[in-house]
Design a protein that fits this description.
By secondary structure, chain A is an all-alpha fold. Chain A is 82% helix and 0% strand. Classes of the chains: A mainly alpha, B alpha+beta. At the A-B interface, helix 10 and helix 11 of A face strand 6 and helix 4 of B.
Chain lengths: 287, 347
């Protein structure tokens, strides 16, 4: 009896297999294309970055990284991320909360607005800040009078980075919170919990993996942002160069080791991000 | 706690969910808000709870105006249609939640919380599941845990939104009875929303029938069933045959010898068990025959059809006990005469 069942099961599996079965050449060529693409556009450049960074040996690599300008660029990049990421986390959670929990006029407009930085070229966002806060800008005179420097200074870099990265957290949370609905939160409120306790004990545990995922992406972009920051920074060495800008400046100065040493750090950051991302995706799927 | 709703209105855009609703529910009642879906009954329940705000009108709990009071200060227990159990907490933590979030000065000690929670879990007969997570429970178990969680804060009103809606038929039957007994033990004012008239009849002491944001009738199950105040209620509660006497039904009823007492309105609603059926003997004129019949357990439902002149067939349903049907010795296609014992008249 069991042999018969097994036989039937086998045929079933085979049938299912056949239904999804493509000719071998289709399968092979698709895999070759995908792998070839990855090698050409990902592994090769990454290898090249490391190869160039170490082209003059460990010593030169270490020297390039410990150079004061590089150190300043790393510090500025970290500072930017440190300010931007928490800011956008708070903003993202509030926006997702507002959009998924309340009914108000202009809600779909707000949702579209959140996506704006995705659709606008980063250079344009940089230019907008120059037009607003630059010497010739709308608030330029007032800022000069009060001795506040935004453009070609750290505040401008943080502003531009925040603008470019603000959709990441909200975008991760909105679909999840929409799907979850708000019954659990209403239940917590009806049981006497305050709004804050409800958020900390009910909402946060339910969204934590998506939130971390959004924060991670936001952080990666904040550290890697080039276009918008390039416009507002002014490229003052040791002062307003972030790591990506430092890479460009060094490269333009024919400082190959310096440029690629900086690039290797960004590449390392990307790899760490990728690993964390897959861990978070796995955790999220687990939930 | 008694509940008084005065002149409650609520609109969603152009849609009027509740239209000047007045309702008084005395302490300790078990009340069903009954009506078709979209009639506003859930909205009213959420307004009582404070999960929704009325556009107009007042909510008084125990004589106190609670209209603008926050949901967490109303002392209500709310059981959601899909239970809304906290998915990242165990059953124990779910039930303990309401006690643990109390402000520091009112919060019982962890030992007392543990005792209370286990008592409640025993009350709903699910203490053995205390360390499970909600997604490891069946629908009926989730329902009872949701109830235990709501009871943990000792609410003075228990509100249940379609409590049995998501359960399969056999579990539903058990839980209905169980809820009724639980209410008798705890004597907490309880309101539940349902679209199932059988459920309302079986569980509630008082039924409030809703339609299109208005209360159609309020009364005990037997009052509602035996004395429906209008044709909507009569139609919604139980089976009924509708005869439109102004639209020509009166002609064939007369010609068939089916006598309704003197017309006291335009439409007559007749419950199936109020139609007596006899095997045709002395009235060869009757155009009615037995088309089909169904076994409903203790009773038989007869599908009686009028011989269709120019295709205008009319079906009348009658019900009678098994025994009586057997004595009639009817076969499909046999001519019968009908006699209407009682009708409700509406204009």
């Amino acid at each position: 009896m069991s042999a018969i069942i097994q036989a039937t099961n086998n045929t079933k599996a085979q049938l299912q297999h056949h239904a999804l079965h493509e000719p071998t050449w289709v399968k092979t060529s698709l895999i070759v294309i995908a792998v070839g693409f990855l090698v050409l556009f990902l592994c090769l450049p990454l290898g090249l970055v490391l190869f160039q960074a170490f082209s003059k040996g460990w010593g030169a690599y270490w020297l390039a990284l410990t150079q004061p300008d590089t150190q300043a660029a790393i510090r500025l990049t970290l500072l930017t991320a440190l300010v931007t990421v928490p800011l956008n986390t708070v903003f993202g959670v509030s926006a997702a909360w507002a959009i998924t929990r309340f009914e108000f006029k202009g809600k779909s407009f707000l949702t579209t607005l959140i996506d704006l930085p995705f659709s606008v070229s980063p250079v344009i966002s940089g230019v907008i800040f120059v037009l607003l806060f630059g010497a010739e800008g709308v608030f330029g005179e007032w800022l000069a009078e009060h001795d506040v420097k935004i453009i070609f200074a750290v505040p401008g870099i943080i502003l531009a980075t925040s603008f470019v990265t603000f959709p990441f957290v909200a975008r991760q949370l909105i679909p999840l919170m929409q799907e979850m609905g708000n019954e659990e939160e209403e239940a917590a409120l009806s049981l006497g919990a305050s709004g804050w306790k409800t958020f900390c004990q009910i909402t946060l545990p339910n969204i934590k993996w998506a939130l971390l995922y959004g924060v991670l992406l936001c952080n990666a972009r904040a550290m890697g942002e080039f276009g918008a920051v390039s416009v507002v920074s002014g490229h003052i060495r040791g002062m307003t160069n972030t790591l990506p800008l430092h890479v460009e400046v060094s490269y333009n100065d024919y400082d190959v080791v310096g440029a690629f040493a900086g690039a290797s750090i960004l590449a390392g950051l990307a790899i760490v991000t990728l690993i964390l991302k897959s861990v978070l995706e796995w955790k999220q799927g687990d939930r | 706690m008694s509940i008084l709703l005065s002149d409650i209105s609520k609109n969603f855009g152009n849609f009027s969910a509740l239209d000047h609703v007045n309702l008084e529910i005395p302490e300790g009642e078990l009340v069903a808000l009954l009506g078709p879906s979209g009639c506003g009954k859930t909205t009213l329940l959420r307004i009582i709870a404070g999960l929704e705000r009325a556009d107009e009108g007042k909510v008084l709990l125990n004589g106190q105006d609670m209209t603008d009071e926050d949901v967490r200060n109303r002392g209500i227990g709310f059981v959601f249609q899909h239970y809304a159990l906290f998915r990242h907490m165990t059953v124990f933590d779910n039930v303990a939640f309401g006690l643990r979030v109390k402000p520091h000065k009112d919060r019982p000690s962890e030992a007392i919380i543990r005792k209370n929670v286990h008592d409640l879990l025993n009350l709903v007969q699910l203490d053995w599941l205390h360390d499970r997570f909600p997604d490891q429970l069946s629908g009926g178990q989730r329902q009872r845990i949701a109830l235990a969680r709501a009871l943990a804060v000792e609410p003075s009103v228990l509100l249940l939104d379609e409590p049995f809606g998501a359960l399969d038929a056999s579990v539903r039957k058990d839980l209905r009875l169980w809820l009724r007994h639980l209410h008798q033990d705890l004597n907490v004012t309880t309101i539940f929303v349902t679209h199932d008239q059988e459920e309302a009849m079986e569980v509630a002491n008082q039924i409030v029938v809703f339609n299109k944001g208005r209360i159609e009738q309020k009364g005990t199950p037997s009052e509602i069933y035996d004395h429906p105040s209008n044709d909507f209620v009569s139609h919604f509660i139980g089976q009924t045959n509708v005869f439109h006497l102004e639209k020509g039904d009166s002609d064939w009823l007369k010609s068939a010898g089916i006598v309704l007492d003197e017309p006291r309105g335009i439409t007559a609603h007749v419950r199936p068990h109020n139609i007596a059926v006899e095997k045709q003997t002395d009235k060869p004129m009757s155009p009615i025959f037995l088309k089909d019949w169904q076994h409903l357990g203790a009773t038989i439902r007869l599908e009686l059809s009028r011989e269709g002149e120019n295709g205008s067939a009319k079906t009348v349903f009658a019900e009678m006990p098994n025994e009586q049907f057997r004595q009639l010795e009817l076969a499909k296609g046999d001519k019968v005469s009908l006699f209407i014992k009682h009708a409700h008249w509406f204009n």
